[in-house]
Amino acid sequence: MEKSALQQARASYQPKLPKALQGAVKVKEGDPTQSVDNQEEIKKLFPNTYGMPLVEFVPGEENLSKSMNVGVILSGGQAPGGHNVICGIFDAIKKLNPENRLYGFILGPGGLVDHQYMEITADFIDDYRNTGGFDMIGSGRTKLEKVDQFEKGYEIIRELNIKAIVIIGGDDSNTNACVLAEYYAAKNYGVQVIGCPKTIDGDLKNEQIETSFGFDTATKTYAELIGNIERDCNSARKYWHFIKLMGRSASHIALECALQCQPNICIISEEVEAKDQTLNDIVEQICCAVAARAEKGDNYGVVLVPEGLIEFIPAIGRLIDELNDLLAEHGNDYKDLEPEAQREYILAHLTKENAKTFETLPENVAHQLSLERDPHGNVQVSLIETERLLSDMCEAKLAAWAKEGKYKGKFATLHHFFGYEGRCAAPSNFDADYCYALGTSAAQLIANGKTGYMAIVKNTTAPNDEWKAGGVPITMMMNMERRNGEMKPVIRKALVELDGNPFKTFASMRDKWALETCYVYPGPIQYWGPSEVCDKTTATLALEHVK
After folding, report:
1. Which of 114, 130, 240, 392 has its CA 20 to 30 A from that of 342?
2. Which strands form 265-266's sheet, in the order they lie side by side?
3. Residue 418: DSSP 8-state
């Protein structure tokens, strides 16, 4: 593989490990755990992996020589640092016993089922240290949830003498890891399954998981781009930029980028839902800022929009819930109809309130909501141009205000969607270190006989030496939710907490940002230089740790 100058220099970076993972490791077990909700149902579904204790690693006295082959899977969307998780696993199992082998399953969970794999060797892995992307073994979105998949996977696991599988993924992928761990435990197959918390969206987070990996790098990458646009905006002074940001189920990315860049407007989906706001309420809020700035002669600005906003508008959320059920039950009856006939079919089968909401939506948005869901049963909101929808509605409202004499200004718009730009960026120092520690923790969980656990690293705003590594039973994070028309056990997503420090900090400043030009230009991620620049965590993490 040909390397850029940055990659060559970066390859020599040795990620920093918490003190507890630097030498011999001992396990310290905490109290038994229970799920966040629906305890009886979760316990019944996971009798072999429920109620296990929290695990923390502390320095031990002697290195054990553990013999174990490990399989690793990258699952779902890419997130910066995934390669370093695999490097952490590789280095740790080789340290336990140089004969240990690491196998990567190709293109995600489907590789396990279809027996597509490769052995990851020292020469091979060195090309991927501290790099972005998932191209080492590729990723995929196959869901592991059927017995025949588990059994097909077990065939290759047995053939390669694999002791454990590590699934690196988000909340859905780790839910699948928990189901797989339970199945193999129930069958006494002797196969361990360990999860690892990945998602740039930042919604795999709780008391035990301080942040999901990739969030730090992705938000810093987006913040650089937003800062560049803000500087251009403040230079040209003639455009309103509407920027949609990744984050289907939560607004963590939008909030973090707002805290870093101080745009004029940032919509937080969770607040929209809590206040029962309509699409028109949101448009009104933006237009008020546009009009107020126009009075000062500032016909320009920046608006951040979370990707999943449309689902959080309560009336549209209720419509989507009913459409999900309709799609599950009658999708085959209408999905191949002509658009107009499809629309009529849907309107005829919706409740009166939801039909009314459906009729008010622009045709292209209504059509997107009617389409097939993604593999996890979610509306494919990235295909809905929410940023353009809002700017079009703002343009119409401002034109009406102009006729009434309530607005005198110019409103020219540009649109952006930052998604793929951040998913495979070279990891920041934080993500490089965090991911390497997660991989090392996963290997130690395996060496200590654990299954159904997710590797965790805590105390991450302290110096690396003081980070705390361990594992949390995946069942602890689960509850029952409706998916594709039926109740299923899933890891509860973490939404932006409106009473949390990050949101409250943002809310205290946004009125000033709306009216004045307070832009901050974060610039590119730095890998070498002063620690306060290179090792800085996200604003979200820093604010969450304020005592």
Report:
1. 392
2. 265-266, 301-306, 240-245, 413-418
3. E
Give the confidence band of 384 by pLDDT, cuts at 50, 70, 90: confident
From first CA to last CA, the distance across the chain in angstroms is: 46
pLDDT at 155: 98
> What are the tokens at 4?
């850029």
Could you report the per-residue pLDDT of 485-515, keeping only the tens digit for each? 789 999 999 999 999 999 999 999 999 999 9
Q: What is the pLDDT of residues 445-464, one digit of tens each?
A: 999 999 999 999 999 999 99
Structure tokens that stand for 104 in this block: 């990567």
- Measured over the CA atoms of residue 232, residue 233, residue 235 and residue 236, the dihedral's sign is positive
| C-alpha–C-alpha distance, residues 364 and 324, integer Å | 18
**Alpha-helical runs (H) found in 187-241:** 215-236
In one letter, which amino acid is 136?
M
CA distance readout (Å), 162 to 61, 69, 149, 189, 350: 27, 5, 17, 11, 50
What does the pLDDT look like over 70-108, one tens digit per residue?
999 999 999 999 999 999 999 999 999 999 999 999 999
Kindly list the catalytic residues. 201
Q: In 3D, which of 17, 20, 104 has the Cα closest to residue 448?
A: 20
| Residue 139 neighbours by CB under 8 Å, 6+ apart | 74, 75, 76, 77, 78, 82, 107, 108
Percent pLDDT > 70 in the chain is: 98
One-letter identity of residue 219: T
Three-state secondary-structure class, residue 172: helix
The rounded Cα 294 to chain-centroid distance in angstroms is 37
Strand, helix or coil for residue 496: coil
The whole-angstrom separation of Cα 88 and Cα 194 is 14
> One-letter amino acid identity for 284?
E
d(CA 387, CA 57): 46
DSSP bridge pairs for 414 = 241
Beta-strand runs (E) in 274-361: 301-306
Over range 163-176, report the average pLDDT: 96
- Nearest-angstrom CA–CA distance, 62 and 240: 61
Question: What confidence category does residue 66 fall into, taking pLDDT thresholds of 50, 70 and 90?
Answer: confident
Residue with tokens 């939801």: 354
pLDDT for 377: 64
Q: What is the DSSP letter of 251?
A: -
Considering only CA atoms, which of 45, 23, 25, 22 is closest in space to residue 35? 45
Which structure tokens are listed for 282?
């949101």
- The predicted model gives 392-410 an average pLDDT of 94
For 319, the 3-state DSSP assignment is helix
SS3 at position 18: coil
Determine the Cα–Cα distance for residues 100 and 122; give it in Å rounded to an integer.
Answer: 12
The Cβ of residue 47 has, within 10 Å, a number of other Cβ atoms equal to 11
